[in-house]
Amino acid sequence: MCTGLIVASATLMSSVAAAADDRRTATAIETTTAITLDGALDEGVWRTAEPAADFIQAEPHEGDPASESTEVRIVFDRDALYLGVRCHDSNAGGVIVNDIRKDFAPGEQDSFEVILDTFADRRNGFVFAINPAGAKSDTQIANEGRDVNTSWDAVWTVATSATADGWSAEIRIPFKTLRFERGEGRIWGVNFSRRIRRKNEIDYWSPVPRVYNLYRAGFGGTLEGLPDAAQGSNLRVKPWVSANSTRALGGTFDDGARIGLDAKYGVTPSLTLDMTVRPDFAQAEADEQQVNLTQFSLFFPEKREFFLENSGMFYFGDIPRESRLGTQRFSPPEEEMLLFFSRRIGLTDQGEEIPIEAGGRLTGRAGGFGVGAMTIQTGEQGDRAGDNYTVLRARHDILGNSDVGAIFLSRQSMDRSSDRNSVAGVDANFRFVRALSINGFLTRSSTPGVQGGEAAGKGSITWNDNRLHAQYSLLSVGDNFRDDIGFIKRTGVRKHFVDFGIRQRPEWIRRFGIRELHPHTRYNIYTDQSNTKVSHTNHVAYAWFFESGGYLELQWNPRFERIVTPFKVRPDQLFTPGSYGWNEYAIELETNHSRRLSGSALITLGGFWTGTQKSTKVGVVFRPSYHLSFDTALQRNDISLPLPMHDFVTNLVTSRVGYAFNTRTFLDTLLQYNTDLKQFSANVRFDLIHRPLSDLFVVYNEQQQTNRDLTSGRGLILKYTHMLAF
Predict the structure, then answer these.
(1) What's the Cα-to-Cα distance from 260 to each of 97, 237, 256, 277, 379, rounded to whole Å?
(2) What CATH number was assigned to the domain covering residues 10-224?
(3) Which pTM does this prediction carry?
């Protein structure tokens, strides 16, 4: 019995009815007695509130009633909104929990989620997720999931309880955690989802097609009966202090201490100002190493908290693909062009820190516009003066489910006025009849001394429903387009992208444990600006998705590259200018990751430029309990090349060990060994959340070169943060 109680300063009486716009409706009621968060739902108000019930399946049988009953009751008091959730289960012993850490992944275990669309615009919302062990995850979404901010952190509380017929939970969400317009009689958008993992079943209170997820706020219901709640002063201040003792590879120890301040202020109910002074990111997790056998730069994701928060507001242009069944552990990043890529600020291309003096960010809604403004000032590094980085973003909702917007980005050196770069652009995103999306953007860069070839743009049209997905897009990047705070994989190209696939679910395949058949193909065809083909990376595949949640895929990947300058694949060997074509054949397997022992594999055979390859990527995850997890992966490339070139092998071993003492205390270890770099590295992180949004971090780093007689790099960092709310 999953009793989930969410408190956000409003006692909700969930009387479910059909609204005038044909949406399901829940009504909040007020509680006059205090609610004790214990997961038991034994206060009288829970018996008074009418439940939101009768959930509908999205998986596996879309449109059927949920196989297990779920009830959600909503109440409020002066300060908070509460949800009381009961997840009935005919097999209470079959409930799956495999993680209790902060921001756990709901997809591989039993879980309950709620989205609160506090402006009732059917586009944006706050998502709160829990599992039966009381773990919490919170997310902020915009534009129906086109912008997803998993690093948004809120102050809220949950307590859960196991029962004979399932599990239950009570959740309290303070009103000052949320952003909304005040006033009597206002409504919010709301929806609830429950995952029953052993059945690989997903249920929604307000039905959502299986091809989408809870982030599609437009499919949500309506929440009525809310009070004219106050949000307080909406000021949060987080001072911090850190101390460290570090030694660079081959160097000597250097001790130091730092202090700084982060602050968050609600300028209006819908507009938030974030400020940081001398930020420190020593507690951020180390990057996972990658082996690069291409002629292009690798993409490493942002992991620093300040830049992750509200990052979706600055996302520009593209249409993210809808999530599909299954998990792709070894899928390569698909980022082709990110106009704003925050890792360009405060980090070198090698990932070394550049000091940041201060920064500010304003995000939210004002006058019918979504707005974002950010400015960051970096300090000196060696002989190089600091830089100022500025990003301005605006977006306006139109046509019920579409938007248009503009962006401006700038980097300006502090010592030379001519050392600068800026980019300006406009974009538009349209959604029609739910499944059809049309998207486009136009940008132009400006750099002193550069004339011509500074434009970039993209147009895309996508259809995505339960049976069919199809997309065509054209991206053009000028020869001289430059974006100092973006990630641009290639310049001087036009890229044609075609995606087509069919999702088949004949009933007869279920007797073999298969839920979906998915033949699909993708084509990435690049030309130069004169339309001469320079590359293609194509993909033809057939996938079988299993009832358990895993999948098997067979692939044929034709490749072509035409290079005009030598490509150095190794320090001592290169491919000369010319045209090269080859075929890759691969098999990819993901098992059921909700089990204690699960695995992933991607095996690729076939050509590699003028030679052949045998590439193996294998990962194993073992979870003895939801406290402890072991995750080890091997990525091996065995490349054979004709004379006068020579064969070579690369190996990358990655091992993670995680231990969650409870839902507030975690120890994580990342060990890596790269034979290509002859490098071993270790990153050990201890995190104690001693009060809401306040942490004690202890981080140990080590780096060793196995082919050189150098003193190992080593560092110990201690950081304490303390959030004060006013």
Answers:
(1) 38, 11, 14, 6, 15
(2) 2.60.40.1190
(3) 0.88
